[in-house]
Amino acid sequence: MVSRVIPVDPFDLVIFGGTGDLARRKILPGLYRRFLAGQMPPDSRIIGAARADLNDDSFRATVAEALAEFVPVALREPANVAAFLDRVGYVSIDAKGTGGWSDLKLRMRPNVVRAFYFSVAPALFGDLAERLHDHGIADAWSRIVVEKPFGRDLATARALNETLAKHFTEQQIYRIDHYLGKETVQNLMAVRFANILFEPLWKAQYIDHVQITVAETVDVDGRGAYYDKSGAMRDMVQNHMMQLLCLIAMEPPYHFDPDAVRDEKLKVIRALDPVTPEDIVRGQYLAGKGPDGARTGSYVEHSETPASTTESYIALKVNISNWRWKGTPFYLRTGKRLRARTSEIAITFKEPPHSIFDDAKGWRENVLVIRLQPNEGMNLMVMIKEPGPGGMRLMQVPLDMTFADALGAGAEEVPDAYERLIMDVIRGNQTLFMRGDEVEAAWAWADPVIQGWESRGDRPQGYDAGSSGPEDALMLMHRDGRRWREIKE
Ligand code: NAP
């Protein structure tokens, strides 16, 4: 099946931090793929901006290198790469300085969408917003895209929102969370709200619990100093996992419209109960062999902070106090240096109220598993009769839908989250971007949890590299008579 490409209006997209890691790995390769898909109108342009003393040609050479590194060779037909690079330019600008801004202004064309991607440290967001405004480069239809981290607590998130609000309206601000751009995550909404099948069962009466897992095999070596200021709660739970939780838990919006969807997500965040210390397990990986067989140092060695109490793993039980979810816990866990790289949401339904079958051995619940990576797709585990003459014995089988198969495409053709989201910015569709009040509400929930362990001076529990996480995380579920799903690719 060939996916439908919806054209967008011509645009000028300025990438501040165009020479940085994110631009090289995600933004520029994503734009190139959209170009290949025919979604970039011929008169659209991409302008890199950073302090480095480059010109159009030398920046194009760095973009070509990034494509060579991050786009499969089969997609890099030289004529296509050259045609893409033709649309690329560069302006040398210091976000805190005065040079380069008039050059940038001259390059901006009237009557095209202007988007400014802030792929720089958050400390520079205010400087960029102010200068774009003061130099008359941003107009009333311009959009800005800001990257995570969006604050490190409620106070800093609020300050950031206030800084941006001085020069841009909320409708112009696109706070990106690339988890929301994932095909499966959007499919979660399609499955819930475009089928009659699930929604009647989507409540505490029929759902026993929900598990959200984001497991990584990588460690923090090389970026330990940055990560140590954040930790798993700030880096993953407050933003990405919270967004996933919201999409599972929210009420049906009246329309698939930015504010309707975001209003419903906000209500979920506001309905979250405070998390008590006994419902949290924090961990730090120890030195040892990972799943790749390689031996690495411990978290403390990588973080370069001798007595660091930052967590590289967290598991927590979250309760939502509303009519739909009262009594159905959401268990969240995420960590580094774990057994396998996998992200999934598993919705475990309750057992039928009465079994008419004698075979209790094979008895299991229905589970809807939404896989974010690898192999984006969904699995619905259902009970059937075991084939053969052995009587009425039950077994659990998956009804599997792997998107790459369903779409008749290779796995690499499932669009990357960044591609989708950048095109949404150009279209002016904010549905998959976080609104300022959502971010603040998520911090208002996370802050007391973090302050709790910081004020108590809690130390995370050590866990073996290549394991499923700390022992106590198993207990978090066992004591409720439940267990985590296996972490596997
Ligand atoms: P990076 O590799 O350190 O790149 C930073 C970029 O900003 C470079 O292009 C740098 O170029 C430019 N820059 C630095 N100071 C500047 C200034 N004063 N004026 C103008 N440009 C300046 O960082 P990154 O990893 O790409 O991250 C960029 C943003 O995305 C950060 O907010 C980060 O938290 C976020 N993010 C990154 C990732 C990722 O995977 N990398 C993932 C999620 C979020 P010059 O030094 O030449 O100026």
Give an overview in words:
- It is a single chain.
- The chain has 489 residues and is of the alpha/beta class.
- It folds into 2 domains: 11-147, Rossmann fold (3-Layer(aba) Sandwich); 180-416 and 435-478, Dihydrodipicolinate Reductase, domain 2 (2-Layer Sandwich), CATH 3.30.360.10.
- The protein is 34% helix and 20% strand.
- The protein has helices at 21-36, 56-70, 78-85, 101-107, 125-134, 154-165, 183-193, 224-228, 231-249, 258-270, 299-303, 403-406, 417-427, 436-456, 471-478, and strands at residues 11-16, 45-50, 88-92, 113-118, 143-146, 173-175, 207-215, 280-285, 288-289, 295-296, 313-318, 330-335, 342-349, 367-373, 377-385, 394-402, 461-463.
- The protein has a 9-stranded mixed sheet with strand order 16-15-14-13-7-12-11-8-17, sandwiched between helices. Strands 3-2-1-4-5-6 form a 6-stranded parallel sheet, sandwiched between helices.
- β14 and β15 form a beta hairpin.
- It is globular.
- The site of NADP nicotinamide-adenine-dinucleotide phosphate has 23 residues, from α1.
- Residues 16-23, 50-52, 93-96, 119-122, 124, 147-149 line the site of NADP nicotinamide-adenine-dinucleotide phosphate.
